[in-house]
């Protein structure tokens, strides 16, 4: 069939703004290179003219410089037009991309709202309120149970004044327990002899009675 009727030519893809911008920028860069080359040529002619005297030769160089300058102005105009075209296409491309992003965001939000509505159907507000009420009642019952378990039994009713009086008396008893006057007797006990046993001198107590090494009165020895 293709041999009889031929084959249709495939359609070219639609123009892409990104490719168009790149193409225009490339052309603008090419024009800028031509402008730079003309600038170099103008500087050469200007240098030649500065070294020449007035006359036909200098006028000829001047005409060449004017022709180059005219070309430069044309290229600069082309460069400006290309830069403006590139800028406009970039703005269009940016706006188009922003609209695409906005559409994607809106679609995502619509999907989120749809999912939220679907989930809300599974939530019963009345059941949640009932559950909260039940939890509150259960907590109150638990507190009452704890108070009941902590209740004291068989405790006598005691007057506060009697308790304070007993507390003051308890303080007096503690003060008596802290009394150390009984240690005075221990301090006044007989002192230990100041001499070693077997010393040459005879040890006596305060009454002049001879004492042994333990501070006790000696028993006189019996004569045979």
Straight-line N-to-C gap = 171 Å
- Tell me the β content: under 5%
Low-confidence stretches: none
Q: Structural class given helices, strands, pairing? A: mainly alpha
What's the β-strand tally? 0
Inertia-based shape: elongated
- Tally the helices: what do you get? 6
Helix and strand sequence: HHHHHH
Largest sheet: none
- What value does the Rg take, in angstroms? 62 Å
Overall helicity: 55-70%
Average pLDDT figure: 79
Summarize the structure in words:
The chain is mainly alpha-helical and 224 residues long. The protein has helices at residues 2-5, 17-50, 56-120, 125-149, 160-177, 183-187. Helix 2 runs antiparallel to helix 3 (56-120). The longest helix has 65 residues, at 56-120. It is elongated, with a radius of gyration of 62 Å. The protein starts with a helix and ends in a 37-residue tail after the last helix. The mean pLDDT is 79.
Present the secondary structure layout.
Blueprint: H1 2-5, H2 17-50, H3 56-120, H4 125-149, H5 160-177, H6 183-187
In short:
With about 220 residues, this protein is mainly α. Helix content is about 65%, strand content about 0%. It is built from 6 helices and no strands.
């Amino acid at each position: 069939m293709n041999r009889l009727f031929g084959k249709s030519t495939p359609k070219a893809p639609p123009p892409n703004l990104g490719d168009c911008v790149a193409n225009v920028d490339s052309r603008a860069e090419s024009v800028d290179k031509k402008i730079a080359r003309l600038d170099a040529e103008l500087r050469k002619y200007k240098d030649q003219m500065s070294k020449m005297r007035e006359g036909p030769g200098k006028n000829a160089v001047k005409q060449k410089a004017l022709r180059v300058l005219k070309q430069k102005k044309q290229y600069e105009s082309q460069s400006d037009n290309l830069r403006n075209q590139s800028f406009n296409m970039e703005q269009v491309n940016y706006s188009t991309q922003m609209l695409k992003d906005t559409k994607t965001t809106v679609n995502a939000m619509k999907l989120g709202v749809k999912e939220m509505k679907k989930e809300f159907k599974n939530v019963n507000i009345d059941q949640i309120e009932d559950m909260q009420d039940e939890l509150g009642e259960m907590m109150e019952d638990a507190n009452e149970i704890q108070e009941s378990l902590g209740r004291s039994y068989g405790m006598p009713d005691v007057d506060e004044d009697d308790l304070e009086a007993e507390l003051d008396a308890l303080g007096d008893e503690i003060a008596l327990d802290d009394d150390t006057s009984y240690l005075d007797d221990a301090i006044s006990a007989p002192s230990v002899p100041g001499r070693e046993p077997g010393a040459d001198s005879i040890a006596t107590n305060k009454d002049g009675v001879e004492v042994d090494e333990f501070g006790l009165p000696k028993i006189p020895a019996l004569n045979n």
